[in-house]
Each structure stands twice: as C-alpha cells, then as structure tokens.
Write a structure and sequence with these properties.
201 residues, alpha+beta, two-stranded antiparallel ribbon, 26% strand, globular
Length: 201
Amino acid sequence: MADGSLSLADWRRRVADLYADVRRAGGGPDAWAMWRTGRDALLAGHPDTPVPAALREGFTGMNFFDYDPSWCLTGRLESTDAATLAGPEGSFASLGTVVALRGEREMRLTLLWLEGYGGGLFLPFRDGTSGDGTYGGGRYLIDQAKGADLGALPDGQLVLDFNFAYHPSCAHDAKWTCPLAPPENIIAQAVRAGEMLPGGP
C-alpha cells in the first residue's frame, strides 16, 4: 500500500471519529461548532486535504451559514424501484426516496448506496444557493464511505441536519472527481445552512 493510501485511510478515520463525536454529543449548535473546528483543521493541515497547496498557508477555514435549527430534520425512507447510476467516480444504487418535512414543506431526495466492497449510504443535493455562495455542483449530507454520517433515530428515521452540509473535494480543486447530486435531488428553495465557499455571502 502506498503512503498516499495510508494517508487517505487516516483522513477517513479522522472524519469518522469526528462524526462519532457529533453523534455522541447529540447534535445541536455545540456539536456543530465542534464539527466545524475539526473539519477546518483537516482541510488546513491534513496531507490529503483537497485545498490546493498554494492556498493552504492562508487558509483560515470555510465560511458557514449561521446555525439554523429549522434545518435540523429527519427523514423516512420510502421504497421505490431500484436503479443504478454509473459514472467515473463509481456506481450507486438508489435505495428509495427519503421524505423530510420542514414546516409545511415536504422534501423528497433519492438516497443512494455506493456499490462495491463495504458500500455505504450517500446523499448529495443541490439547492437554491448552488452556484451562489455554495458550489454549483452541490453539497453532501451523508457519505458513509468517508465516515460522514449523522446517524438515525430509534424509529429508523435518518438524521438530516443540513447545518452539517459540506462541499465535495472537487469544489476545492478540479483535480478531484466527485459524484454529484442527481437531478431529483435538487431542492428548489435556498438551503441557507451548512458550509459555504470562501467568499460566500
């Protein structure tokens, strides 16, 4: 195994540990602040950071929308016909539609499963901020292959706290190839929660 592979394994381990701490803390603003600090530290100093080398010295952390408890949601999975999405970054199978409510508004997002050894849940999305303060290709909410998982409630509903939404590596550097949100995972409204790009509003 190459040193780079060991470094990537360490990145995934650290991300998984960070999310485990968030789950133990029960979520909320304090856990979110801890997550922000830990994520910024990884982006600033880890060998596998996606932040380009030329920008690391002056990197002071990502911008974030203010924590908004109205975007801390839960979602139930509704079964649908299975489908497979294939691309250069890998293949994903649709597990069904996650349905979440924010006030009176219902959101429906396709929950994906990374096909391959071990697999993992994957939930990317785009919204009204994509290309205007956040990456045009969207953000991630769940990526179990990298350890990014906020958990589930005892009744099986997934925790969907959009305050923890973050950018894929390709938002930082075009050398990365990242799976992006399918068309059905576009949220019409602006999700003003989670990570913004540097210089975001």
